[in-house]
Amino acid sequence: MQVAGWEHVFKLDPDKTLSDETLEAICESGTDALVIGGSSGVTYDNTVDLLARVRRYEVPCALELSTPEAAVPGFDLYLVPLVLNTERGAWITGRQAEGVLGYGPLIPWEATLAEGYIILNAEAEAARVTEAQTELDEERTLAYVDVADRLMRLPIIYLEYSGRFGDMERVRRARRRLAQGRLFYGGGIADAEQAAAAALAADTVVVGNALYADWRTALHTVDAVKRVKREGKLV
Ligand code: 1GP
């Protein structure tokens, strides 16, 4: 399974709680995939638990591996983030190399993709943990996009504003700049309107926190994204 057809994705955090009812509604919402991952508190056990609960449903499920300890078998796809705008090499290739050392023969390479993260919200937990240099102007953001897309040829370029709705103009420019990768946008999408705006700008729209704040409203983001992608404009 690859990500080419993903327009809308829900990101689930194994360290947070969802009732069975909510999880069922999420899995049957029509989203293209679930991505399981988080910036802190993710363990092997809570990842296995969440995988077992979503496996009852048909929705494809990917694991975003921010820490090798949470590498759980049985996902459809594995996404490995490389944080590009940090000076700490451990978050670009160091931890990934440690993961390969530890799990080498077990890694399903054919189902593993790298994501080039460009983190743009200084308040985001991921920015704090990775010491990302989030104060990028647009020109510099696009330079990182070129590094990810044209130089490293990563399949996913991820503009991450986690916790805050981002600059859609910048996201749109980033997508138009791409030569081969797919532009993921995530951050602060709370409702259908913001999801629609993000769908106009990015290839793939990721909704996370809203599921834990107001999941019924979050579910409306699926239709909003699908409609924009179908019509090619806000409707
Ligand atoms: C987080 O990009 C995702 O990695 C989604 O962000 O949680 O703010 O929706 P939110």
Automatic annotation (TrEMBL):
<feature type="binding site">
    <location>
        <position position="11"/>
    </location>
    <ligand>
        <name>sn-glycerol 1-phosphate</name>
    </ligand>
</feature>
<comment type="similarity">
    <text>Belongs to the GGGP/HepGP synthase family. Group I subfamily.</text>
</comment>
<keyword id="KW-0808">Transferase</keyword>
<feature type="binding site">
    <location>
        <begin position="158"/>
        <end position="163"/>
    </location>
    <ligand>
        <name>sn-glycerol 1-phosphate</name>
    </ligand>
</feature>
<keyword id="KW-0479">Metal-binding</keyword>
<dbReference type="InterPro" id="IPR038597">
    <property type="entry name" value="GGGP/HepGP_synthase_sf"/>
</dbReference>
<comment type="pathway">
    <text>Membrane lipid metabolism; glycerophospholipid metabolism.</text>
</comment>
<keyword id="KW-0460">Magnesium</keyword>
<keyword id="KW-0443">Lipid metabolism</keyword>
<dbReference type="GO" id="GO:0046474">
    <property type="term" value="P:glycerophospholipid biosynthetic process"/>
</dbReference>
<keyword id="KW-0444">Lipid biosynthesis</keyword>
<comment type="subunit">
    <text>Homodimer.</text>
</comment>
<dbReference type="InterPro" id="IPR039074">
    <property type="entry name" value="GGGP/HepGP_synthase_I"/>
</dbReference>
<dbReference type="InterPro" id="IPR008205">
    <property type="entry name" value="GGGP_HepGP_synthase"/>
</dbReference>
<feature type="binding site">
    <location>
        <begin position="208"/>
        <end position="209"/>
    </location>
    <ligand>
        <name>sn-glycerol 1-phosphate</name>
    </ligand>
</feature>
<keyword id="KW-1208">Phospholipid metabolism</keyword>
<keyword id="KW-0594">Phospholipid biosynthesis</keyword>
<feature type="binding site">
    <location>
        <position position="188"/>
    </location>
    <ligand>
        <name>sn-glycerol 1-phosphate</name>
    </ligand>
</feature>
<dbReference type="Pfam" id="PF01884">
    <property type="entry name" value="PcrB"/>
</dbReference>
<feature type="binding site">
    <location>
        <position position="39"/>
    </location>
    <ligand>
        <name>Mg(2+)</name>
    </ligand>
</feature>
<feature type="binding site">
    <location>
        <position position="13"/>
    </location>
    <ligand>
        <name>Mg(2+)</name>
    </ligand>
</feature>
<dbReference type="GO" id="GO:0000287">
    <property type="term" value="F:magnesium ion binding"/>
</dbReference>
<protein>
    <recommendedName>
        <fullName>Heptaprenylglyceryl phosphate synthase</fullName>
        <ecNumber>2.5.1.n9</ecNumber>
    </recommendedName>
</protein>
<comment type="function">
    <text>Prenyltransferase that catalyzes in vivo the transfer of the heptaprenyl moiety of heptaprenyl pyrophosphate (HepPP; 35 carbon atoms) to the C3 hydroxyl of sn-glycerol-1-phosphate (G1P), producing heptaprenylglyceryl phosphate (HepGP). This reaction is an ether-bond-formation step in the biosynthesis of archaea-type G1P-based membrane lipids found in Bacillales.</text>
</comment>
<dbReference type="GO" id="GO:0120536">
    <property type="term" value="F:heptaprenylglyceryl phosphate synthase activity"/>
</dbReference>
